[in-house]
Amino acid sequence: MTDQAIGGSGPAVVLLHAFPVNHHLWDGVAPALAAAGFRVVVPDYAGFGGSPIPTAPPSVDAMADDLLARLEGMGITQFCLAGLSMGGYAAMAILRQAPERITALGLLDTKMAADTEEARDRRLAVAERVLTEGSAQFLVDAMLPQLLGQRTRSEQPDVVDLVSGWIASARPQAVAWAQRAMAARPDSTADLAAYPGPALVLAGDDDVISPPAEQERIAATLSDADLTLVPGVGHLSAIEHPEPVAAALIEWAGRSLPA
Ligand code: MLT
Question: What is the 17 CA–ligand 1 centroid distance (Å)?
């Protein structure tokens, strides 16, 4: 993509995808928000999908710089901002840089803490391997059991195929850049504690990457958050069971409107 907005002339809603996928993660969610009147933007970024491989040194701040400049280029200076997993890390970086632009914050299947040293080392090893192999194919088997819930893996072969295809087609340079950026990301607890606006914290209850206990901690850190756990769903909630995710996002975006 696609710096295009779909839908109505209402408030802008920006949806940031996870690693190592692309804006199609939101295909089951964006049309419902658009039909509810919101102006929905689903960018590719960090070299995934149709976005260019970043030239800046890897960091979540560079993701935020890029996204803020592109939104400004679209004339969008105030927006509801939701990100899923890596999208949540990018959203938290935008919150640090430009809190005045965010009218509602949505954190889906994500974490507010920085990586442990082991997690950082694993990311840097993946970055090396993907560049050496010149392909992200190995990540399909490595990541699918973590990205998709058990029920999705056994009952939704179409979703398994879709996500496998997205991962396999991710460009090695994007995978390496994003892993290095995520490895370097800071803890966001203080930023979330300082955010005064309406927030949604949502995750699958079978998310093994950002488990329910982490979602409860995030919701408790924010001053005005609703917490939704979607039953029988893993880490990629937006594609595993889009309907309840869309419904929660419509309600959340509605909270940004004047009463
Ligand atoms: C994602 O879904 O974006 C990744 O699992 C995030 C991460 O590796 O921390």
Answer: 10
